[in-house]
Structures are given as structure tokens and as C-alpha cells.
Amino acid sequence: MAQTEPDTPTQTIAKRVREIRKVRGLSAERLAERLAEHGIKWDRYTVTKLENGKRQNVTVSEWLALGTVLNVAPVHLLVPIDDDDADYQVTAKKTAKASDVRSWVRGQTSLGNGPHREFTAQAPDGEWVSFDTTTPEGQRAAVEWAKRSGLGTVTEGNPRGEHR
Hints:
Blueprint: H1 9-23, H2 28-36, H3 44-51, H4 60-70, H5 75-78, E1 87-91, E2 94-97, H6 98-105, H7 116-120, H8 136-149
Antiparallel strand pairs: 1-2
Helix pairs in contact: 2-3
């Protein structure tokens, strides 16, 4: 059996919009009307073109409006939710597991494109951040974040909290 190529991000959004629209009991026309209320000028034909794969892209504004109108987190439109191990097309030349992409979109983990420190340095200071402190890199990143943000403390020591 031949390996199939993963869907493009737009194809994933199209599938998810169709699934959620039907679950919500919305016609393509009603979805377009609700999008118009949020400044996105779509008609039922545009919704149908997206869902049938005849639309090649979705703007960020459209993606966010779709999330708003369908009452779903944008990440759950962008990344498949039914198979965490499935390959996901991040760029034309990069794929990753869907679960890893979802975590990356949420700002929780890097896709390995550079140092972890570089990735986490761009998170706002007040945002919750977690670190894998079972690794030396994760321990260093946790200590650095705590110092930089002033919002947390990291106690160096053994992971079970046993006193020595």
C-alpha cells in the first residue's frame, strides 16, 4: 500500500470546517452569513469551494473568523484531532506528527528548528510555560525562564523532592 501525502493545512481546515459546520447544523449559506458578521465577505459558494478543495488558501483573518463563528479553537481547525501520530504538512518540505504540530502552535514545544532557549524566549513573561526538567536542557531552560520572568522559582535538586 502506497504512503499517501499528508493534507495541506488548507485541506485540513476545509475538512474540519465541513465536519464542525455539519455538527453545528449550519448550512454553507448560514456559515457565510455569520462570517460576514465578523467582516469576512464569503458567500455559500466560497464555503463550498473551501470544503470541496477548490480553494487553495485561507487567510489568517479568515481562519480566526472561522474559529470564532464555529466556536472552536483555531488550532483545532488547523491540525487534525483524530490521529496524533499522523504526519502533518507544516511547510511544503517539512512534516511532523500532528500532536507535535498542535503543541508547537500552542507555543508549548519547538519543532526542533533551533535551540529550545530561542523558542521559549519569545513567549510573553506572563504566559504559562512548562519544561521537561528531566533533561539538562529543560532544567536550564526552566531556571532561565524563572529568572527572566520573575514569575516562578525553580528549586534545583532531585525530582522526587526527597531531602538529602
